[in-house]
Amino acid sequence: MQLNSLDEKFKILEDRIKILEHEIERTQAVTEIQNLMGRYECYQVHGHSLKVLELFAQKVPDVCLTTPGGTYVGMEHIKTVWTKILVEEPVGTMVEHHLTTPMVEVAKDGKTAKGVWYTPGHETLPALDPHAYWAWGKYAVDFIKEDGKWKIWHMTGYVTFRTRFDRSWVETAEPDPLMPRDTMYPPDRRDAVDTYYNPKAIRLMIPAPPDPYETW
Known about the structure:
The protein is an alpha+beta fold and 216 residues long.
């Protein structure tokens, strides 16, 4: 009897250790995901397209990127965005966007995660318009664990406003010149949500903060 009791105690202890290890992994995932998004922001504002592409999941067919122009599905189409559409003029270019208010929810099973960030920034793009701009927006991103590393799975960028530094966002509602809606590289889906600030409209909470969830 005593041996059985010890076996039961060891089993309970073993189960508790597994639960704790799993929860530690989920907690660590939040930091890893925030670092992943930080690297994405650093690489993309300096035009390091190949490094950006490495941050996306490579083995899932529905990996996608949604821009103001629509959604590009699959790595080949995402590669098109970063190598043919988002081509920056290096001389005189300054693009800096920051990540704030991180909201990250890792699934209970630890295999996927969801995150939302606000991203204020400023830009100068001589190839398009050699002026100083304020550019604010948001990211909504789904993540998946691939070969033991967190990767971007579904990413959506929302634009709040983009205006010259000497004009307010109330005066302007300019389309984003970085991602024209009609391009020689059309998206797979024209499903982008228009979130530009409009002084005559009520703003909706898009994207909403992610809720806790069990599994994808």
